[in-house]
Amino acid sequence: MANADCIVIQGSNMAECHPVGYQWVAEAKARGAKVIHVDPRFTRTSAVADRHIPIRAGSDVVLLGALINYVITNDLWFTEYVKAYTNAATLVHEDYRDAEDLGGLFSGFDPETGAYDKASWAYAEGGGGTIDEPGAGTEHGADASARAAGHTLGSGGPPLEHAQVQRDDTLQDPRTVFQIVKRHYARYTPEMVRDMCGIDIADFEYLARAVTENSGRERTTCFAYAVGWTQHTLGAQFIRAAAVLQLLLGNMGRPGGGIMALRGHASIQGSTDIPTLFNLLPGYLPMPSAGRHDTLQEYLDAIASKKQKGYWAEADAYTVSLLKAWWGDAASAENDWAYDYLPRLTGAHGTYETVMAMLDDEVEGYFLLGQNPAVGSAHGRMQRLGMSHLKWLVVRDLNLIESATWWKDGPEIASGELRTEDIETEVFFLPAATHVEKAGSFTQTQRLLQWRHQAISPPGECQSELQFFYELGQRIRQKLAGSDDERDRPLLDLTWDYPTDAHGDPDPEAVLAEINGRHLSGPDAGRELSSYTELRADGSTAAGCWIYTGVYAGGTNHAANRKPGHEQGPAAPEWGWAWPANRRILYNRASADPAGRPWSERKKYVWWDAEQGRWVGDDVPDFPLDRAPGSQPDPDLGGPAALSGDDPFIMQADGKGWLFAPKGLVDGPLPTHYEAQESPVANALYPQQQNPARLRFPRSDNLSAPSAGASGADVYPYVFTTYRLTEHHTAGGMSRWLPYLSELQPEMFCEVSPELAAERGLEPYGWATIISARSAIEAKVIVTERVKPLTVGEHTVHQIGLPYHWGVGENAVVSGDAANDLLGVTLDPNVQIQESKVASCDIRPGRRPRGAELLALVAEYQKRAGATPDTGNSTVTDPAAEGIDPGPGGEGTPGNDVRRED
């Protein structure tokens, strides 16, 4: 980011939420870069930016789509980059129909299941057919279940059998990706931005000029986002829209370019690399699905093809090496490397499905580790009631957080919904070590592994996660010792032999070494692996996470590298270790032109050295080192050998950056604007109001407010959005117990504009009650011009800002109502993240009622709005307008040939 000429921070309050990382933005600004903050609120980030552009929460695809349209219509796209490095010239299947043709739906939508058949999105094959993934249109992982559990295609994207696609390098054929993108965004205009985002045309033109004037051969623009983009029912498409824009501008794979995902805290990136996610294995390998991947070969055939281009074709080596790391000698060719020891997905098993399963008495026990769902997860009431159905609950934390005490002092105790004496859940609280009381690696927001050294020993019985799980594993294995039950073999055969110190604590460096991997046989047996390219599918290598291979190369803990920046080159390769292969910028082959020359001397980064016959530069080249520019190997070779000299996106199945996604996303090949699950604004672009593929949970305890155009929408006329503060940390477990931080931010509050305060009679520093279709909370009122009313269409949209750090309990220094109690559960279908950043509400002066009167207030609003489990939960808003033929019972019957007649 320090090398950027323009930085757009959108969906993040970076200066407050990532104050250390913001130093690189400040450094770029000191060098002359423009910094633009697009956010519903004027924040500390806005205060240090060149311009703050207020936006209606949830309308980001309109703004990004209009920037894409601006770039194309004004011929400002980086022509040579786009033609060579993206799929712009590729032709798409002749049956493909766009959302522009079908009223907001793409071809292949089934309104009964809420899912797409993506066959018509495929590339057109050179021979006239289509290129699809192996398995002829089937999905794998949790995508195969009736309720999609999200995109689980791994870090390489969906496989393509080969790269012999139909192309039109003139980009004139209407079926080229370029022309499809151009048509798709033609209606995303500055006027549409004004009418849908509330952004005036002058602000849009300032942003468009800043981005385009700072992109191209000599300059680069960077986008940065956080949960302001992800926590939406089309959050993955927000990010995709930025990727499309950045590819058109030639900003991917180049210094000062790209898209920076600002992760929540120290190792959130690490928790997805070596995942706590139910549908992924380490290194973004998908979890196998029951009934589809019953054998190792079925699994490998589904996740990658040996005929596709790039390094994801080697996914079999990554998988077998993982199985060898976990089960060692018990994993052999005869038993498919212990593949049957892996669990299988039977559907969606995310955190919200699990909570609903608790309510249905299908879950007996639950571990909470570094999480406080009673405060920090959407629909707090559902979280707490779900825990009341458990037989046992284990909470490991630093303090007695609300998720450990809800049974005696939670909101449902106060309302009378729960009585302590009736709750049968046995709660175990186990004290945890803090981050300074343990050693180990963490992976921060730019994929950088760093080593944390232990500063002091944890007090009393506090344990690190490593020690806790190691000892838990030891005890379970002791109890199962001697078992001849086949289901116990995966636990008994685990490689659970980490060295321990005098106190019995396992050595964290030994764990990192196992993750890195080693040779198991041959002349190098026992040697640590240096690169993921050394991994093999024959059982001769073991590695716990293929993308981390190299972090322990040569027996050295490279995560602990600490060479000062002034003693090394501009990429600082000896400070920590970045996955994969210690590359600081992914896809950096794109930093040079097709002939291998830097696009400009100013942005020189990686280039082809003809004399040496290899790629060289400031970073580890993200490309086969000896693959010369202009090389055109036979695509039938498959794998890395099939990559042409101008295929910089080496993990993609065709080596190109995808403007159009023929596979992989479950809700559309192009980002398309839909309104949030709850919105007082009608979708001006399409008859389709919400993301048709969103994951819905129509339940009486998860009601949604009616949206614009539906009866009762005026009962919840305002929008609220949640955010975090510098002074508090996530759900408050590390900050509300500290007197100094509690003094700095002592009370739950809401931010409202002077206009909204006048409209609703809210007094500065008085109390307000905020009511949603799920709950009602109280907060102190901050009347501020930081939250401005926006003119959207023909009416004013008021947005209310709510920090989410407070919870109700007796143990913290400060407590308050939880903002997340107001939220319902509706999820992005790709990644299953909740919609936390926009929902409908009412606000009125005064404190909320207590006890049963609180429930009566919420029920009274629900009744006035006519809210039922069906409210807002149809897949198709208007079948007739959206080109869906009426079917039995009024439902629609999808068809690729159906067009909207208007």
From TrEMBL:
Gene3D superfamilies: 2.40.40.20, 3.40.50.740, Dimethylsulfoxide Reductase, domain 2
TM annotation in the entry: none
Localization per Swiss-Prot or TrEMBL: Cell envelope
Assigned keywords, A-Z: 4Fe-4S, Iron, Iron-sulfur, Metal-binding, Oxidoreductase
Domain Molybdopterin oxidoreductase: 2-377
Pfam families tied to this protein: Molybdopterin (PF00384), Molydop_binding (PF01568)
InterPro entries: Asp_de-COase-like_dom_sf, Formate_DH_Act, MoPterin_dinucl-bd_dom, Mopterin_OxRdtase
Domain of life: Bacteria
Start and end residues of each Molybdopterin dinucleotide-binding domain: 719-838
Segments for region (Disordered): 129-162, 619-640, 863-902
Cofactor: [4Fe-4S] cluster
CDD domains: MopB_CT_Formate-Dh-Na-like
NCBIfam families: formate_DH_Act (NF041513)
UniProt record similarity statement: Belongs to the prokaryotic molybdopterin-containing oxidoreductase family.
Listed name of the protein: Molybdopterin-dependent oxidoreductase
Source organism: Sinomonas cellulolyticus
Organism placement in taxonomy: Bacteria, Bacillati, Actinomycetota, Actinomycetes, Micrococcales
